[in-house]
Write a structure and sequence with these properties.
By secondary structure, the protein is mostly helical. It has two domains: 79 residues, no CATH class; 47 residues, no CATH class. The chain contains six helices and three strands. The longest helix has 23 residues. The C terminus is likely disordered. Keywords: Signal.
Length: 143
């Protein structure tokens, strides 16, 4: 399972579905097939196809994955359409970092208000200690 999906990979078969979303976001095709268990059923594949569009290639079974991969890799137009589809459906890279920064800013505001109401001496507007403490608090939770 290792690290994150490689941007250099040309196609993926995924077992862990969150990984599949990451791969689609990279603009790569995801090849999969329904399983025999209760979770990854033909209906689930169909619903994921509605969510992910042409980025998801559902094969009849494991014996068809290689054939489908070769077919899609030989079609430059389809690969370009899959790349565009991934960007359109999942957005540009960096969303998690932007969300975390927004949460960070809100959290720092809340921490300052709590310290203010607790009447912490160095947390008064204009205090030089407060500024230094904020830098310290910000560094602790900074991303």
């Amino acid at each position: 399972m290792g690290g994150p999906p490689s941007e250099g990979a040309r196609g993926w078969h995924v077992i862990i579905w969150v990984r599949g979303l990451q791969v689609v976001g990279l603009g790569k095709p995801v090849l999969t097939f329904p399983g025999e268990g209760p979770q990854f059923t033909p209906r689930f594949c169909e619903l994921q196809g509605h969510l992910l569009g042409r980025s998801l290639i559902v094969c009849e079974g494991p014996h068809r994955v290689a054939e489908a991969l070769v077919q899609v890799l030989q079609d430059g137009g389809e690969l370009a359409a899959i790349a565009q589809n991934g960007r359109r459906r999942l957005g540009s890279p960096g969303a998690a970092k932007r969300i975390a920064r927004s949460i960070n800013a809100l959290l720092l505001t809340e921490v300052r208000e709590v310290l203010w109401y607790m009447d912490v001496p160095w947390c008064k507007l204009g205090s030089t200690k407060c500024r230094g403490a904020w830098t310290c608090i910000g560094a602790i939770i900074d991303l």
